[in-house]
Amino acid sequence: MITLTKKLNLDWKWIFRQSCNHLLTKYLVHIVVNILILLLLYGIEELVKVIGIKVPSPVILMLGNFVFLILLSWASPKLFGLYEKATFPTLELHLKWMNLYFVPSFIRLPLSDAISVKEAFMIMAIFIVGYVVLFALVLWVLILWETLETRTKKNDEEKHEEEIEVVPPVEKCGVVAVDSREDVCSNGCSSDSDLDSKTDHSSIDLLNNIVDYIIFFIMFIVGIPLFLKFHIALLLYLSITVLVFKTILEKTPKRYAKIFHPLIFTVGFTWFFMQIFNWISKTVSFQDSLRLYSTGRTYLYLFDESTYHSQWPGAGDFLVSLLDISIVSLSIPCFRLRKELYQNFIKLTSICTSAAVGCFFLYPLISHHLGVKAPRALAFMGRSVTMALGKPLIANIDGSVDLFSCTTLISGLLGVYLGDHMIRLLGWSKRHSSNIVTVGMVLGINCGAVATAHLLNTNPRAAAFSSLSFVIYGLVMVIMSCIPGLVDIIHKIVGFQT
To answer: What's the domain of life for this entry (predicted)?
Structure first.
């Protein structure tokens, strides 16, 4: 015990050095990579304006990065390794924190236009029926597809068995015995070093986590006088949002993760702290705080003094800018799952495209005929599109961002809380609820990134197909919204006047 304590005391210097290296990477390299990506996005956005097309710059860069990764990994593995080491950690960080970037859309929901009671109930009915119908149709098509695949595979195997002879395997007892003895020896000899390594790494993680909290707490302290004196809310609201989200995400036990969803509680606690500082300030109302949270001055308008003058960006503008980077980061799971994408290409593309085309035309048509106003009827088509891809979609079709944000959040949360139960109920069999392709595609198309983040903890293999599904589904929607002729058709359907 004394020897172990001395060893740990000596290792604190190494732990401190490793922690400093980690923080240097986290707060310097990540910042540099983020700035470079934002500069690329800004340049693409300006180029798109000149050309006159309506394809969002993050989607262009995401597709470009996906193709670039495939070509680079094939042409030069060495250069690919360098590119991977430089960019992947930053992009993967955005995938992990993507749910945080959805917070600004929900923070501003109280500023939404009021709607009548009749329209509210109609919206609720359309949402519930549409959710169940799309969920069931996608599930049943996948079950039918799976059944046909199984029968075809079974017939092929029977034919194959008739044609080949079974050859008994050669046993290699001696080799196995030697390997097992080597394993025992290596396990016994390395137990002490494994213990030390685990202890060191846990200490590094603990120190890094503490430093993260300290940095955001300093931002919180500095942000208080800036908010009270100058009404600059960036540091105060950003630190509150990140600290609440990080605490709930990391400190909630896994068994309670469904109940204490970080997205819901972050929005609620942010509103709560907003109200507290409004009372302290006595000069800022709750509505003013919501407007200060997102002023609209994202990275695209950071140097636009003619429009924003001396208006500072808000915490929401900062997070929305990072949301664009998270769209680019979706190219990483697509690249890593390219084998699965190739193997299930027809299934993924045909089902996702069919669902996207149906929702693109049917949701506005049905909503308009049931009395929902044009912008909200248009927003319904993005009901199950993940926020990262849905925002450019809704912007292209002139839909209601507020309704889209609300329906997307509820769709994702329903997938977290009820997804497994609905698959078992509508699939008639527990067998289908254990099929990773079925579970992944159903939740990916219907529930987007919120449910996918939940699957990463409960069913990582299904999360892979969920990621591919919501990306393909969302991309098809965005591409359709970039075609002027299709946009004109749905505008006529809902009677939208520009």
So the answer is: Eukaryota
